[in-house]
TrEMBL record:
Belongs to the GTP cyclohydrolase I type 2/NIF3 family. Homohexamer. GO terms for molecular function: metal ion binding. A divalent metal cation binds at residues 66-67, 105, 227, 231. This is GTP cyclohydrolase 1 type 2 homolog. It comes from the Bacteria. GO terms for cellular component: cytoplasm. It comes from Catellatospora bangladeshensis. Keywords: Metal-binding.
Length: 272
């Protein structure tokens, strides 16, 4: 079979229907002619100059991204912003761009399933169900209980968190068994983790006041592993599924697009 942008879009939208996306989201085909052939694909979290350069270097003619390039409404794609320059580079080099964001978050399997699998969770279910067995986040259990300290070490080892590791709120000696996770920015799902009886909730972008209130009230422990690190695991099963469906070369980007690249301590030099 000869794959085109149109047939690839049809495949992706059968697995991640755009109607599943949140109303504010912008998913689907961004650049590319429907009849354009697809022979090599690059899967990325973020569409940035670095990942576009990687696509050009590897000869990819389609980029599948998790985060939208043009999330807010625009009236111009002039090459006066980095987004505009990217649009020009993609079109000028014949590279199509497709985005699967919150529709991939709620899919089963989806973004949070990849995160749960990497942490070894079993018997998972949606943290905030929608319908048709889908939903945001996942809650499951560890094969054997761990202390919070041990679980934090597991997360820091399994996830692409870089030298800064993970942030943890809670007693490191606390026993944890039931675990809730959400890829990306999951602060809003803290009440769902509480309702699910989670011992610990792992996500990214946790807020100070909500965290301190939860810890003070005796709720679940919290682990903030960062936005990028909790979504990057999805690219691996996505690529495996696409290879099985298409027989094409599907490349998982090795470009880290986490904007937080090093940490510094008061008595130490910055650590890259």
């Amino acid at each position: 079979m000869t794959w085109t942008v149109a047939s690839f879009t049809q495949l992706l939208e059968a697995e991640f229907p755009p109607r599943w996306a949140e109303p504010w989201d912008r998913v689907g085909l961004v650049t590319g002619r429907p009849e354009q052939p697809v022979t090599r694909v690059l899967a990325v979290v973020d569409v940035l100059p670095q990942t576009v350069a990687e696509a050009l270097d590897t000869g990819a003619d389609l980029i599948i991204a998790h985060h939208p390039l043009l999330l807010s409404g625009v009236s111009s794609v002039a090459a006066t912003t980095y987004q505009g320059r990217i649009v020009h580079d993609l079109i000028g080099n014949g590279v199509a761009l497709y985005v699967a964001h919150t529709n991939a978050d709620v899919a089963r399997p989806g973004v949070s399933d990849a995160l749960a699998d990497l942490l070894g969770l079993v018997e998972t279910r949606p943290l905030r169900p929608t319908d048709e067995g889908r939903g945001f986040g996942r809650v499951g259990r560890l094969p054997a209980p761990l202390t919070l300290g041990e679980f934090a070490h597991l997360a820091a080892t399994a996830l692409p968190v870089g030298s800064w590791g993970v942030r943890v709120a809670g007693d490191p000696a606390r026993t944890v068994s039931t675990v809730a996770v959400c890829g990306g920015s999951g602060d809003e799902f803290i009440p769902d983790a509480v309702a699910a009886g989670a011992d610990v909730y792992l996500t990214g972008d946790l807020k100070h006041h909500r965290t301190i209130d939860l810890v003070a009230s005796g709720g679940p422990a919290l682990v903030d592993a960062g936005h990028y690190a909790t979504e990057r695991p999805w690219l691996t099963p996505l690529a495996a599924w696409l290879r099985a469906q298409t027989g094409l070369e599907i490349i998982v980007s090795d470009t880290t697009t986490d904007p937080f690249r090093f940490h510094a301590c008061a008595t130490l030099d910055p650590v890259a």
